[in-house]
Amino acid sequence: MAQESPLVTEAKKIPIEALKYTYTERDVILYNLGIGATEKDLQWTYEGDDEFSALPTFGVIPQFPASGSIPLDWLPDFNPAKLLHGEQFLSIKAPIPTSGELVSQARLLEVLDKGKAAAVTSVVETRDKSGTLIFENHSTVFIRGSGGFGGQRSGSDRGAATAENAVPKRSPDAVSEEKTSPSQAALYRLSGDENPLHILPEFAAIGGFNKPILHGLCSMGISGKHVFQKFGAYKDIKVRFAGVVYPGETLVTEMWKEGQKVIFTTKVKERDTIVLASAAATLVDNAAKAKL
Ligand SMILES: CCCCCCC[C@@H](O)CC(=O)SCCNC(=O)CCNC(=O)[C@H](O)C(C)(C)COP(=O)(O)OP(=O)(O)OC[C@H]1O[C@@H](n2cnc3c(N)ncnc32)[C@H](O)[C@@H]1OP(=O)(O)O
């Protein structure tokens, strides 16, 4: 493997502050609505329901400001409009509180030189006030036009976070289809990702798109909801964002159960194109389920 670029070695020394995220049940409902929960899903949209809870992929929300605070402007020709979410891994370490204060600490893990792009991976640990680890997130952003700095091309093996999750050669065990709304990104952004790429046509145009695109974490949340509805609770989930989704398109999640893993892919129905690939969730076993 090639040596780490000195630029990356220096970037890893930049101090990164821990960031607080304070939230109420209202934020949980807003997130659940943002990934397609409806008034029929009272456990996700009515705080008075006995089973009221956050959908599992809420775990990407408290860490988002911390992950986004990692400086990237040291990359060659850095342009925020050229940044796309490349991959996400979420590990859920403890039951998800429906309100409270969490603290997230981000660190820069690795920066790969893909020639035409840089692939930047950060890791964030999110803890409650007592210090208990609640979530671990690994996020990779793919920054077009910022490659060629002479760094390593391949990354470290991070287990489930980097697993290929090849799709079995049989029909899926379950399929869920859900049409997103043309306002999906306008709603989802209220959970914290205000990147103009998802709302402002002029900004999307600089990024090379003829209209705003949907947040990757919104598509992941919708498919993560499909996995939860078909197979139950999971302790981690990983996706690669393989193609863009436009608000209003229909997502089709195809799922295969392989032991404790649910491997899945997500397609946009209208364009028959894969948008989430190398994706899987690890189901909680029954003993762990009793605790979560
Ligand atoms: C949580 C906090 C942090 C997150 C902040 C996120 C902010 C958000 O607001 C931003 C978003 O939500 S953007 C929306 C979601 N993302 C997308 O829509 C991206 C969709 N994917 C693409 O367009 C292409 O796959 C594309 C462009 C990504 C790659 O396509 P190509 O350029 O054709 O790449 P290709 O030639 O196939 O491969 C080149 C090398 O790159 C690796 N690679 C490919 N796709 C990758 C991906 N998605 N993530 C990471 N690496 C990826 C390939 O493996 C290849 O590497 P190598 O040459 O070494 O084999």
From TrEMBL:
Residues 21-145 form the Peroxisomal multifunctional enzyme type 2-like N-terminal domain. It comes from Mycena alexandri. This is Hydroxysteroid dehydrogenase. InterPro entries: HotDog_dom_sf, MaoC-like_dom, MFE-2_N. The keyword Nucleus does not apply. Residues 167-275 form the MaoC-like domain. It is found in: Peroxisome. One of its GO terms (cellular component) is peroxisome. It comes from the Eukaryota. CDD domains: HDE_HSD. Residues 146-182 are annotated as: Disordered. Pfam families: MaoC_dehydratas, MFE-2_hydrat-2_N. GO terms for biological process: fatty acid beta-oxidation.
